[in-house]
Sequence to fold (231 residues):
Amino acid sequence: MKKAILLLSGGLDSTTVLAIALDQGYSVSLLSFLYGQKHDFEIEAAKAVADYYNIKDHHILNINLGFLGSSALTDNIEVPKGRNLKDMSSGIPVTYVPARNTIFLSYALALAEVKGAFNIFIGVNALDYSGYPDCRPEYIDAFQTMGRLATKVAVEADQILYIHSPLIKMKKSEIIKTGLSLGVDYSITHTCYDPIAKGKPCGDCDACLLRLKGFEEIDARDPLNYPKNQK
Fold:
């Protein structure tokens, strides 16, 4: 089977990418990160997703990025709530974590070289997200180019690295529709930037609002347990 490394956060997007990779016949090694985020519920979700797909090769790394500060996901900064789509698209939000995807992909690149897996899957999306610079197609292309120059196997064995970002040009509704067609159980995924007790989504941060909007656009119900005032 084709080997791949897949970055799994336990969220809707990365879980959908996992379903896509498996459907395409890849044998997948999973990589998740405790990076200093304010809560670790997404790691529990990632474990649940790995169990759901019976994938034992799941690496969870602790690379605390909290010392960097400057992000609402890792620092004492309030997570934005109740924003409309125009607000979300007006600049890079405070939930951006400096160089996070570059760091994650670098670990994935190293693991890919060791395992002889020349395919890396990542669930970045450039449409229904808030302008993160490391979610753009040109960024993924640039990292792929760098990765093809940076490893021993690329130089000595003439192996070609591919960074797969199958969701990058999809709307959230299209991502969800794709996942449902592949049997994704979205009840075990986690998306919220600022969950309340026991990982329950707040329903009002950018990530929750985009997720809810995606389900609404395909006339489906999000299986997560949102506060009662949510649809």
